Amino acid sequence: MIKSLQGIGMTSRRTRERMIKRLSEQGIRNNKVLDVMVDTPRHIFMDEALASRAYEDTALPIGYNQTISQPYIVAKMTELLLEKSGTLHKVLEVGTGCGYQTALLAQLVDHVYTVERILPLQQKAKDRLWTLKLKNVSYLHSDGGWGWPEHAPFDGILVACAPPEIPDMLLQQLAIGGVMVIPVGRAGNQALQRVTRTDSGYELEQLEPVSFVPFLSGKG
Fold this sequence. Notes:
By secondary structure, the chain is an alpha/beta fold. The chain has a domain at 59-210: Vaccinia Virus protein VP39 (Rossmann fold, 3-Layer(aba) Sandwich), CATH 3.40.50.150. Helix content is 29%, strand content 27%. It contains seven helices and nine strands, in the order αααββαβαβαββαβββ. The strands form two sheets. The chain has a seven-stranded mixed β-sheet. Helix 2 (13-25) packs antiparallel against helix 3 (31-39). The longest helix is centred in the N-terminal third of the chain and has 13 residues, at 13-25. The chain is globular. The protein starts with a helix and ends in a 10-residue tail after the last strand.
């Protein structure tokens, strides 16, 4: 791995290992998730000026009024997605952002279909994933609320922005037995939810309070 990916000082593997220890102490139990996170250089997904803060447990700006979620939330959402689903063949990600969550999913599932409304963010994410040689990802520049119906149904859906309520189009694109992890609510009153589609409908679990950027319509 070239040096910029490997990291030095505050971006080194040792710093990532400290992050993993902290995540374990915060209750993340899925070893596959932890292993992928220790191997994935989070610092390359943000501007160089912020790279030294990449492994702090905080959300950081990535431009265009968007953020990269704190490591705990990324780990928790990934763990919740994997927990009830066994093997995930097709996962829809709504909100590519900087591509960090995409990179983790690409190492844990067969194929990721990721949708982003802000084209420059998506282009940067694509370049970063290509650098990491992660090629099992398809990209769509679109309104995330529409999902990606051409490739539905999905075994898993992970949403990285908060709508006031779950978009019906996304529910329809979930396979029977599939799981969606999504923050829901308005600013200051959001909660992480997990939806499981059953033969007869949808089971909803209300999880912990979170703070995400709002789910916006249209393309940026």
